[in-house]
Every structure is written in structure tokens, then in C-alpha cells.
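tool_log.txt
---
The assistant was asked to compare two proteins side by side. It first ran the structure predictor on the initial sequence, then on the second. Raw inputs and outputs are pasted verbatim so the downstream comparison step can read them without reformatting.
(1)
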Amino acid sequence: MQRIGVIGAGAWGTALALAATRAGRQTTLWAREQAVADAINGQHENPDYLPGLPLDPSLRATTDALAVLAAADAVLLVVPAQHLRATCATLAPHWRPGVPALICAKGIEQGSGQLMSEVAAETLPATVPLVALSGPSFAAEVARGLPTAVTLACEDQALGTSLLSALGSRSFRPYLSADLIGAEVGGAVKNVLAIACGVLEGRAMGDNARAALLTRGLAEITRLGVAKGGLPGTFMGLSGMGDLLLTATSMQSRNFSLGFALGEGKSLSAILAGRKAVTEGVFTAAAVVALAERLGVDMPICQAVDAILNRGADVEQVVAALLSRPFRVELEH
């Protein structure tokens, strides 16, 4: 796998393209906007999404997605979760058999309640192997070459091993997993929980409250993941606890910082109006809650976030309701 195609030139797509380039691969990045492609090719920078970070001059960008697809030995899909279906539908007629699709979006589709791999399975040809890349990874740090470990979830071990070699480097270290479902659930739900942690921080509720929320939040991820068919051990790894700890404790996280602003009293519309990049947890919250209800899984923290984001609930009242829940045995479901 010498030629890597990356669909999506936001911060994460650009960072992953840089990681592949550092691993010695010939990498081409698809950008929706011509100005972004021109800046990457001419200035070796993505000023809209990774301002101030120099890009490898060998990284090339284009607005021709089909050209990227035609040349690639593996394709990374790095579009926002709610746009994955449309992207796959556009690419599907041109996808060569056997070329793997690495799903790098973290979310659950609104309406269908499907994981990203389920969306891709419905829209891409059956000959396309599906892989998920997830784990604790801020795009800016990956772009700067700082040490990062992620999960590469692939049911075909031979293919997974080839992808490890193609993308791995000293600073970007993928670890192989066979649990595609578990990796995806962890990556999707942690965004919603990060918003909750941000709300607590914005309301200055203390470190004890954040630690409790992280722990109980991980229990929610595990319950939903196991109900979907994931393996319990996955949620103690990089794509579970690792990703949750990173995303729910740092202002670098778009989800945490959005929750922080909500906790301070800012409106959701005002927060989103000031952002160019997508905050996935905002769009995933309702889908997580709907999926949990369908599977009979109790997820009170995610329900609280959904109530604040989508049902006009008052932050103070939602927090009070969580603190009024009955006492219970810790390890009960």
C-alpha cells in the first residue's frame, strides 16, 4: 500500500494525510473547497483548519475526488459523520474492488441510528473492506508529529497488519483490534460525554464531579457498546477510555470547549455560529439517545446532554436531575 487517498481536508483529514506522508506513502488529499486545495499545494498550509502548521511539500491536494479514488491503494474517509452516507454514495460507483475504506469519522447517523461502518456497508460495494480508525488524537498534535497512539479496527487481520505498516511511524502508532463495533461506539459516544464534562467545568463544579462523570460515562459507553455487539475489553483501550480521557478533559477538544461555553451560559446557536469546524457531539447526542432507547440501555448522562442541546432544557435543572437520581450499586447496569 504505497498510495493513500484521504477524502476530507479538514483538520483531522489533513493531519492523517501528514501522518501517511511521514510513513513514506504517496498521499493525495481531497478538499471540497478549491481555496483549501490551492493553499495546501501552493503555501503548504491549511489556513482554514490547521493555521500556522507547515505541511510536507510532497502532500498534494485536489478537488477531484474520483482521481483520488482511482489512484489509491487505501482510502481514508474523513468527512463529518452526518455527511458520510452522501460521500460514500457519490464514490461507490467508482470504488475499485478490494481497496479498503478506513472510516475516520466518529459519530452515529441521525435518523437511522447506524454506526459509520453500517452506513458505509449500505452505500459502498460489498467488495470494499471496512476499517475504523479511532482513539485519542487531537489533529493539531498529529500534524505537528507529536506521539499519538490510535486503534485500527479491522476484522481481517492480514489487511489490518498491512495498514499498520502503511500508516504507522515513530510518532503515529496504530494498534490493531478486531472489534469494529466497539471502536466506533467508543469514538462516537465520547464526544457527547465530552460536552457534559465541559458543562461541569464551565459551571465550576470541581474535579470530583468531572472524575465521577468520566467514570460513569465510560460505563454508559460500555453498556451501549456491548448491547451493539462490541467486546467489553475494547472500552478500556485507546478507542474507549483513552479517547474519552483526552476529549473530555481539554479545551483543545471542540466538544469539551462547546460544553464549557454552555456551562458558562452561552447559547448553542451563538457557539456554533463562531465555529467553522464541525462539533460532532452536537449532532450525535440525539442519535445516541435514540439508539440506546431502542436497545434498552440506560444512558442518563447522554440523555442530559441531548436535553440541553435539542430540547431546550435548562442546564441547572438538568444537572440537578442527575444529582437526584437514586443511589445504586456501582457495577449494576
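(2)
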Amino acid sequence: MKTLLILGAGKEQIAAIAAAKAKFIRTLVLDMNPKAEGASLADEFHAVSTRDKDAILKFIAGHPGKIDGVMTIASDIPHMVSAAAEAAGARHIPQSVADLCVHKLHMKEKLREGGVNVPAFARIAQLKDLEAFIARAGFPVVVKPVDNSGARGVQRLTAGMDIGAAFAYTKSFAYGGEVIAEKFIPGLQISTEGLFHDGRFYCTGFADRNYTRLDDAVPFMVEDGGDIPTVLNPAQKKLVEAEFEKAARALGIDWGPAKGDMIFGADGKPYVIEIAARLSGGNFCYDKVPWSTGVDIVDILVDMAVGNPVDPARFVPTRSLATSQRYFFPSAGTIRQIDGVTAAQSLPHIRKVDVWARPGETIAAAENHPSRVGYVISCAPTREEAVTAAEGAVARVRFQVEA
């Protein structure tokens, strides 16, 4: 029996644990939280932080059995995956490539060097650097930590804002204290995802990100789900996919997953915002894409990670359905009661309703993706039906909040 080391036992990693177990692959799972949802599902669980490289390597060195592969889902730790896989003698992308993919500034520099379309950007060490960049690029600009994820610390700055306070806020989310600024590109924001297998890149995931709440959350940039299929025409979609692959190759990714945050600009050009060397979170790779296309990228990567053969036919879509995801955004305060979840679950086309906030819990206004409190996902024959179903389900759930 082969063994797969999975970094993370949270809600988002459960799909990898389940896929491996269904193939009779032994699951060895690490997470700092022994109460994580996937901990009890693993064949073997150990309370080890997935961001503590020394602890991970020490664990692998002391593990008595052979580890055939290493992977994660959603967690932005490809550098930990590569380090663990190297120690275990398993397939992985080079450590230098993984390190590049978790540093937004170095990533952007490499992409620009490779001729990839990226927004104008600059390293921001001091407030005067941000002021100088704004003077050159003009508003609006986006500031973000170079080494965080989930929109933590990300802000869209416009004229009249307190730039000094914004810089201090963003810097507080940077593990290493570094901040990057980039020109905000108007256009359709897109999530892409794919796998490199035997030298070929397969773009398996393509969804329009929903930012209709952008002005409600100023200055934060909190996505409210997304929709499959895209509104782009085939030629426009092909342009985005080509730029996505070009970017992944420019970074040196030559095996395994790549996830892209893209924009199809109002100028008709595709732009790369970020590339991650991992599978996506937010139900994209393990719910929305398989439901809409039939391509199960998690199942494929599990096989790739442990060295099992993969038939290229598994990358070919077998269905064409639409999915739509929307999140819950209750007002800030203490939740007293939540109603309508069961009613929402029973609506036509609704596949999932998940609310993790509980009565008695105090919540703040949404500032990043982890601060969202739940979601609905629909699956329907058409995009219009899927969007209508998802938005209708969100409307059924009512949060009674005491400010």
C-alpha cells in the first residue's frame, strides 16, 4: 500500500484525504490542530504545524515507513510541500520554484522577466515608496503583503484615502514585513487552475470571480464567489489560458498544480495577478470544477503525487454544467440566531450550504476571505439558472445580529 503525506487536515484538505482513501492509499496527515475536521478521517494523524519546516522534516526523518507522495489543497505552502517531498524522495517542483511562488514580489519580477502581462508594480518599503508609486501609476492601486494569502491585508486604494493608515494595515499582515503595490486593472477577474503532466499543461478550471460587492467593502477586496462557465467568448478564454500557462512556465512550474488569479482587462488583454503552485481552495478544485466538467483534478493529483499512472483522458471534460457560489455577509456584531439554512438546502439546484458561524459568535465586517461566514453552491444546466439559484438560497438564510 502506498502512503500519501497530506499537509493540512482542515475542511479544505478533506477532499484529498477522501480521494486517497478511496484508492486504498494510506493517508498520513499533519496539522497543528488536533481537532481539525480531517484529523479523524486520516489513517494516521500527527499534530505538526504545516508551516514549521523543521518540524515537518524532523517528522519525516523519524517516520518508519516509506512516504510515496506529498500534497496539499488550498493552503499556500508549496515550499513546505517541496521540502517534505524532497526529504521523502517523492516527486515535486524545485524548492526554488516553490519559494518564488509564495513571494508576490519575486513572483511578479520573474513573470515580468518572462514577458508575461502583469500590472505595473513596485516594492513598498516605506510610505514614501507608496506615495511615489501612486504618483507614477495613478489611482486606484492595490497594496498587499508579499507573503500572505486569502486576501489578508489586501486593499484597493483610491483618492482621498488615508494612505499612511492603509500601508500600516497591510504591512501588519506581512510575515516578513514586505509590501507590494500594483496598479488596479479594470476588467473581469478570473480563477484558473490546471496540472502539468508529462510535459503538457491541462487547464481544467476556469471561473469568473464575482466582485459585485467591491464598492461595499472599500477598501478591502473580498470576493463573493464565482460562476462557471465564463462569460468570455472562446477566443477570449483561449487568450487567458495561454497567458496562464505562459506564466506558470515562466515561474518554472513543470509538474503538478498551478492556480492563477487572472484579469481579462477592459483593454482586451489578459493579465496575471498571481500564480500559486498548489490546488485552489474555496471549493473550486474539489466541488465546482468536477460538478461542472467532470474533471476531478484532486483525484488526478493524488495519483500523480504517489507515482500512479494517469490516463490523459481524465483531463477531458465529460459534462457541461454550470455552477455558482455565493457567500454570506451578515452585518458586524454578535449572532443571535440563524434561520433558513434547511430551506435553502431544499431549493432546486442547490448542492451545498455551509455556515460555520454560530449563534453567540461575534463577527466583524468582512475584510478578507477567511472572515466570510459561509456559502452556498448551486449546479444547474445554465449559468443563469445557477446564479439565480445561488442568490435565492443566500436570500433564504437570515442572520439575526446584535450590533
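---
observation on (2): The chain has a mean pLDDT of 96. The two ends are 54 Å apart (CA to CA).
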